[in-house]
Amino acid sequence: MTAKARVLVVDDSPTMRGLIKAVLRSDPEIEVIGEAGDAMQARAAIKELNPDVITLDIEMPNMNGLEFLEKIMQLRPMPVIMVSTLTHRGAEASLAALEIGAFDCVGKPLPGDRVPFAHLAETVKAAARSQRHRPGFGGAVVTRTPTYSAPSDYQPSRKIIAIGASTGGVEALIAVLTKFPANCPPTVITQHMPATFTRSFADRLNRLCSPQVKEAEDGDRLEIGRIYLAPGGERHLHVVNPAAPRCALVEGSPVNGHRPSVDALFDSVVKLAGAKAVGVILTGMGRDGAAGILRMRQAGAITIGQNEKTCVVYGMPRVAQEIGGVGRQLPLNEIGEEILKSTTTSRKNRVA
């Protein structure tokens, strides 16, 4: 990105708009070109200013942020970053926004926060560079029913599936996991998101998917037909105990700036399962998971990366591909099927 990212700030609170503008204006690669207090003002500003990125409050008068986001995505698609309170209600609304097509969600500052909106500027710049609204983008379209059905004779092999994702991962995970049959292999996932979001996201996936999906708890046994999502917060998700594999929530410093970390999960899968695993790295900023999926591949595991054309942000999969960690790079709509082919005992359906 050579030109500055041009941003429109939309929030009904003048105080919050002022804080967001101050944070963004401190970055020399960002230009705040306007602000709006409600959807009507924002609509006029979009037409007049043609911003690269919008920050949008979820709770606003007259028309709430979700309703306005739907109209933006229908009439004038562009990268939108939702600004939300990090509560259970805020988490549900934020997940709905991500499914509609928001680039990402950031939390409003809480009392005592030393650095309000610490990652907002980087998120805005990533949104300005993102693939989603460029011609030819082939990413996820969230559907309520699977577009692919597993073969009727699908039988899971004795493998573990490990998936890592970040920005754009809500849509990507729905696209992949809704293809899984009820008897899928044990699947563990680290998706970068706030602690208040992961329980709601696991519940959402559980409603959409045939297998049972839950937020991982310390000591959960890895079982066929179960998908475990790392809880956001202060611990990493590991898989441990080869004799009776289970989830472990482990204290530790952030890895690649994240806790839970995809690398931490993948490294534990290497120790637990070696070649009896499938590693998948999906859309996301940064490099978390790249080194881990390389170690999975070196241990003999099958490794799959999302291709550039279908990533909202081609960051984590790009680094994994560049360092040799990705055995097969595929568009998002083929990844779920490829995972199943890699984990079946049925001769006619498995990957050679």
UniProtKB/TrEMBL annotation:
Post-translational modification: Phosphorylated by CheA. Phosphorylation of the N-terminal regulatory domain activates the methylesterase activity.
Pfam family, one: CheB_methylest
RNA-binding among keywords: no
NCBIfam families: PRK00742.1 (NF001965), PRK12555.1 (NF009206)
4-aspartylphosphate: residues bearing it: 57
Catalyzed reactions per annotation: [protein]-L-glutamate 5-O-methyl ester + H2O = L-glutamyl-[protein] + methanol + H(+); L-glutaminyl-[protein] + H2O = L-glutamyl-[protein] + NH4(+)
Family, similarity comment: Belongs to the CheB family.
Record InterPro entries: CheB-like, CheB_C, CheY-like_superfamily, Sig_transdc_resp-reg_Me-estase, Sig_transdc_resp-reg_receiver
Keyword line: Chemotaxis, Cytoplasm, Hydrolase, Phosphoprotein
Listed PANTHER family: PROTEIN-GLUTAMATE METHYLESTERASE/PROTEIN-GLUTAMINE GLUTAMINASE, PROTEIN-GLUTAMATE METHYLESTERASE_PROTEIN-GLUTAMINE GLUTAMINASE
EC numbers, comma separated: 3.1.1.61, 3.5.1.44
Protein name (Swiss-Prot/TrEMBL): Protein-glutamate methylesterase/protein-glutamine glutaminase
Gene label: cheB
Limits of the Response regulatory domain: 6-123
Subcellular location: Cytoplasm
Domain notes for this protein: Contains a C-terminal catalytic domain, and an N-terminal region which modulates catalytic activity.
Gene3D superfamilies: 3.40.50.2300, Methylesterase CheB, C-terminal domain (3.40.50.180)
HAMAP family: CheB_chemtxs (MF_00099)
Active site (UniProt): 166, 192, 288
CheB-type methylesterase domain span: 154-346
